[in-house]
Design brief:
- This protein is α+β, with helices and mostly antiparallel strands and 133 residues long.
- It contains five helices and six strands; from the N terminus they run βααββαβααββ.
- The protein has a three-stranded mixed beta sheet with strand order 1-2-3. Strands 4-6-5 form a three-stranded antiparallel beta sheet.
- α3 crosses α4 and α4 packs across α5.
- The radius of gyration is 18 Å and the shape is elongated.
């Protein structure tokens, strides 16, 4: 079974956006619910033409720290610089880092992480983050 990024949804969405979850199941045939950055449930669309078989579905997840995810994304950008909110979006879209609740890191977390790792990052005016080389 192939798992696409679009199939990964935070577990909390069951409480907040159930309609979205089922629209993804309709579109993609399945959804993988994440809790603490790990897959916990798979919701599949029933297909009468497919036999139901029990099997283990291996799902590989990469658990980067936020600063590692920031470094990966920034190292691929021009001038190693990106706006903090765009950086947060890109990290989330690529599923490089998720909070324990499965949600994306906020730009304020990105900005704060610069202060914790001044040897790796520089916070520039206008909420731009630069990877130091």
């Amino acid at each position: 079974m192939d798992i696409k990024i679009d199939d990964l949804i935070p577990f909390d969405a069951l409480h907040t956006d159930l309609e979205h979850i089922f629209s993804v199941v309709e579109k993609n045939g399945k959804v993988v619910l994440l809790k603490d950055n790990k897959p916990v449930y798979i919701i599949l669309k029933y297909d009468a033409s497919q036999p139901i078989a029990s099997s283990t579905i291996p799902i590989e997840t990469v658990n980067y720290t936020l600063q590692e995810a920031m470094k990966i994304v920034l190292s691929e950008t021009e001038n190693y610089t990106m706006h903090a909110s765009k950086l947060a979006d890109e990290i989330y879209n690529r599923r490089l880092y998720l909070q324990k609740n499965g949600k994306k890191a906020q730009y304020t977390q990105i900005r704060a992480r610069c202060g914790h790792y001044p040897d790796m990052f520089e916070a520039l005016p206008g909420n731009f983050i630069k990877l130091k080389r």
